[in-house]
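The instructor's notes for this session suggest beginning with a concrete chain rather than abstract definitions. Hand out the sequence below and ask the class to guess, before any prediction is shown, which regions might be ordered.
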Amino acid sequence: MPQTFNCPNCGAPLDYAGGSDATMRCPYCNNSVIVPAELRGPGRPGVSAVPQSSRISDRVEGMADVRRLLESGNKIEAIKRFREITNVGLKEAKDAVERMELTVGPPRAANVSLPDASAGQSSAGRAVTVIFLVGVLFVAGMGLALYLLFGQLGNNVSSILPQDVATPAPTDTEVPPTDTPEPTPTPGFASPALTFGSEGIGPGLFTDARHIGLDGAGNIYVGEYSGGRVQVFDPQGKFKNQWHATEGNNILFSMAVARDGTVYAVVNGGILKFNGTTGESLGALDYPAGQGFQSVAVTADGGLAASWNKDWAGGIFTNFNDSQDDFVFFDRNGKVTNVIAKALSSVGNAELGTTLTVDALGNIYAYGDLNRGVFKFSPQGKFVDQIGSASQVGNPYALAADGQGRLYVATSNGIEVFSPDGAHIDVIPTRGSVSALALDDQNNLYIVARTQVVKFVLNSR
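After discussion, reveal the predicted structure:
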C-alpha cells in the first residue's frame, strides 16, 4: 500500500509505492527527493552475496542521484545520498559533493508537466490550480483597472492644457497600404527530418534510451541505460530487432557502433563486443590493467578509443588526490595501440568520469564530471584547446564530431556546434534531456532523448 511523505522542496504530499529506490521525482516541483529510510523496503537479500557487478550498478545509479540532487539545488540531500552509497564521513562526503558542484553550475529551472485533468487531482494539485486561476483573474482585473485609470487621466490632462497650445488636427487622409513583403525567416543550422519512438517496453518504444550509433548502411542502434536493451532500426526508423548487452538490471554505461555493425558496450567497467544485427556475443576486449572503462568511441580506421579510470573498477571514484583518467586506444582486432595517461587531470582537476569522442583526423574531444567544458587533444594526446565558453558548454551531456570536423555538444541550451578550430557556429534547439549524439556518412545528426530519437538534416553542409 502506498505511503505518503511531504516533498522537502515544495511541501506537496508524495505517494511512495514502496521498494528500495532511494530517490523519486516530485510531480509538483519536478525535483529529485530522497525517500525517507524508514519507508524504503529491505534491499536485496544477502547483500554479501550480491555480485560485484550489481554493486557497481547500484553505485553508479547512486552517483546519478547525487548529480540530479545537485542540479535541482539540493546540496544537503546530495551529501546525504553520497554518504549512503560510499559510507564515508561527513567531511569527506561534503568535500566530494562540493567538487561535483563546481561542474553542475546553478540549478536549472524545472521543466514541469501539467497533470492530466481526466486522471484526477490530489488536494495539493487542486490547491495549486485554484491559486493559479485566482492569480490569472487578479492580473486581468488589475490590467482592466489600470486601463480605465490611465484613460481617465488622459482625458483630464487634455482638459487642462492651455487653450493657446496647438494640437494636431485630425485628418481624414488614409495611408495607402504597402506591398512590402514579410521577411523570410533564416533557416537554422539543422532541421528535424525524422522522429520515432515513445515511452514503453515494446519494440520501437523506450524507457531510458541513452545511447545511439549508426553503421555504414545507415541502420540505427539505440541502447537503454538500465537493463542494456539494444534495439535496431532501419534508416527510416522501422524496427528490425532487439537484444540485450547486459544481464539483469546491469547498466549499459556507454555504446559505440562500427561501420561493419559491430557494437561495443561498456558494462561493469569492461568492453564487450556484439554482432549488432543479431546480438551475438563476440567476446570482450582484453586490457591488462583490468576493469575501469567508462566511455567508448569508434575511430576512423575502425579501431576504438576509450576512457578508463583505475578507481572505476570498484564502481565509484573516491581518491581525488591521485586520479588515473586515461585514454586507451585499440586497433580493429582489439589490440592496445596507445595509452594517454591522466588526460584531463593533467590539464584540470582530478577526474571522476570521462566521456570522449574522436574526429576523422584522430583528434580527441573529452569532458568530465569534475572539469567544466570540453577539452581538445591531438591524436598523440597533447592538450590543444578548451572548446566553448562556460555559458555554452559548462555542463555537457554528449559529444559527436562529423565528417567536416565540426563538433556537436549537447547541453541544457540545446546542441552547440563548433568549427574544427573551436569557433562557435550555431545552436540547434532541442527539448528534453539529450543523452547521446551520432552522425551518419551524410553528416545527418541523430539524437536520443530518453524516449525518442530525432534525425536532423543540416541546412548548410
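Then share the key points. DSSP finds five helices and 28 strands in the chain. The helical segments are 52-71, 75-86, 90-104, 123-159, 390-393.
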